[in-house]
User: Fold these one by one.
Assistant:
Number 1:
Amino acid sequence: MFSPLQPSPWDRLVRNYGLETSPAFLLFDALTRIVSPYHSNPLNYNPLRQLLESSIDFAELRGRSAVKLFLSATNVRTGKVRVFRAGEISADAVLASACLPFLYQAIEIDGEHYWDGGYMGNPAVFPLIYECNCTDVVVVHINPIYRPDVPTTATEIMNRINEISFNSSLMREMRAIGFVNRLIENGVLCGNEMKLMRLHAIDAEPVMQALGVASKLNADLDFLLHLHAIGRARAEAWLTTDFAEVGQRSTVDLQNRYL
């Protein structure tokens, strides 16, 4: 694992697209809306592939994963979510789970093509319910659910549409979990038939709300380390205030937060 204080292989890919008001970003953003990656990048070059293959031993990961690992991707043809489990994880699976269709060609795996899993599962919670014994789930939010202001510029509107779209699958799963939990709590369902799930969340809403759409394309190392530090601080705050409730009760009000 790379220390946040030490340069990592990510240094090879460091790029900074600047603020969303910069002419370069605005031009790039406009081009992605009208030029397909199949035309702008016909050789399908993706620098992340080399980074992944040089940094991760996927054969070792598939054979000796110490934890259950799930990655989701969206099947372009069927619109269904595809969940890759630990024994299926590869560089292609990782790229598929993060393939933004305006930037990269769909990733082909076993004859099917995939885009970012966030369109149908962001994250996909159901594997944790059906394939794990634990009844506590911690959701780490990277997109703000709520924004205090109504977007007015074209860039702001597109950014908010993306946030709502990527949060929608999580909202649907949380609604289903809340529904089943109420049935169990009211005695309609037996706890042996369905699991009562306890939900927890780690987020940095004020920080995420302040970041513009350009931040999603900012791969500058200092910026990533800044986000890393914020993530650690928020996780430590959650451990201090809510960790003791794991196994006891949900620390998230499903009704107010998601429904």
Number 2:
Amino acid sequence: METKGLVEQSPPLSAHEALVEANRCLYCYDAPCTHACPTHIDVPRFIKKIATGNLNGSARAIFEANLLGATCSRVCPVEELCEGACVLGSEHKPIMIGQLQRFAMDHAYRNGSQFFQVATTTGKKVAVIGSGPAGLSCAGELAKQGHQVTIFEKRELAGGLSTYGIIVLREPIEVAQAEVDMIERLGVQMQRNAELGRNLGFGDLRRNFNCIFLSLGLGVTPELGIPGEELIIDGLSYIERSKMNGNRMKVGREVVVIGAGNTAIDCATIARRLGANRVTMVYRRSAEEITAYPHEFEFVKKEGVEFRFLAQPARVLSSDGHVAGLECVRTELGSPDSSGRRAPSSVPGSEFTIPGDQVIKAIGQKKPALAAMLGLEMNNNFIKVDADFETSIAGVFAGGDCIRAKNAASTVMAVQDGKLAAMAIHRRIQNG
């Protein structure tokens, strides 16, 4: 197989292409695309400004609703959101909203445009734990109001999943870091290598800050509980290696990926593009139950990835400490479980082996363990918040994946959480 490598999948629009595409827009009144966007970007407004050559104005319109517009233009499932709601989609091709947003954002960052000035300080202090999309969004919005915001990030690089967990084909690391830099230019202080519960005390934060916002994200992939699991690679770790080491990371010749969500598809894509001869995704349910977006499912099939549905991993086979394959048992589906999907059960005596020299698991993430340690009230193992994103501890707010007990987690939803939480925190500070 020809190795394609890892580069951003969609090339940017040229100025001419962007102008032609922007002029296709009908600039709908009360536009469905704006309603479909979780951050409610005024889509007709920013596209109209592209059509008139006002690229800074277009970028400003996006930033006013979404400070992480560059990331969202790349990673949002636009087919399910804004473009899926485009009125031209029923009989024509929907407007390329995501690509036009990227065009405006890239212009703004390329030219070093500054759209918000550092505000006069209010003297009030807010701590943000975690620098993922929710944390950056919340911090930036609060800084615009003049509050002194400090982000505490446990890792060396800020940006959360945008930096470490989104495949390069969708978002290069440079895009995430440019957004981090922009948030810092708003006056936000960033303390890296600062982890709550390790070298950062919750009590100290409560004493030293007026409010706290938790942007904890989620944890590592859960255990499968099968023999040989120590030889399995965590899916998020696999994606991180691909972002940090690029085309130099070690990839097996026959790779098996356990799971069928968007992260599993990213892992399979990495393996395939970096030279694996064969990549097989193993899923214990059928194709109808996969959690990946339909367009991602179609994409990975075109990459040459194979699927083994109705298959449950049973043990990792090894030889001299090296992976030799994955033993599975066939499953059959019964009544729906708590997820609403039909529950799988093993078929006795149906064992079979999938050969492979590298096994990766991407079966979701553990719930935020830190939340229980802090004594926060939980909802189905996620942090419970009220309509203002306030937790069971007064003055402590939360947003992003760590609160997403219902509906699918996504970058754009995390950005909106951070924005709305910032509004609530600002009101709390104003009211004393």
Number 3:
Amino acid sequence: MRLWINGREREAPILGTVEDLARWLELPPFGSAVELNGQVVRRPDYAATGLKEGDRLEVVRLVGGG
């Protein structure tokens, strides 16, 4: 499955949902956000939000520090 993630085309295994994507990318349960085709996906909606070939995603991981 080809997806655009943070502006780069990537080959991924077949991922049915944003939840599958989060698992594949090993996103932490807190401190990350996913935007799918220009729309932010709320974490409670990850399991119900499907992915398809060619989708464009922006994935952000928050980093703390001082």
Number 4:
Amino acid sequence: MADVPLMHSLLRAVPNRAGVVLVGDVDQLPSVGPATGLHDLIEGGVVPTAPLTEVFRQAADSRIITNAHRIRRGQMPDTRQIDSNSDFHFVKRDEPEKIVATLVKLVRERIPERFGLDPIRDTKFFAP
């Protein structure tokens, strides 16, 4: 998710005598800022690449991983609420006002309380 300013700062900070190894996920969401640093380097064909085959960010039984693979196969994610301790939650709301109210409550209260986070400093919320 490195945009141009972040990639620029990173590479300027690396001494000339050092090497850089970048590790990324081909299915990563694009950066919020301009461009897609790692993706652009790979697509440009100027750096060698090696695909990684193991997931390290989540546990092997992660519902995030399971549903990500489902989506990649063109299937809908499994949205059943199996366990309140799950790492994947789906909240259905049909009315715009209810969607907004639910998102505000999640970002301001529920997520920070559950994980001991400051809602301003420690969380980010992105919406299409």
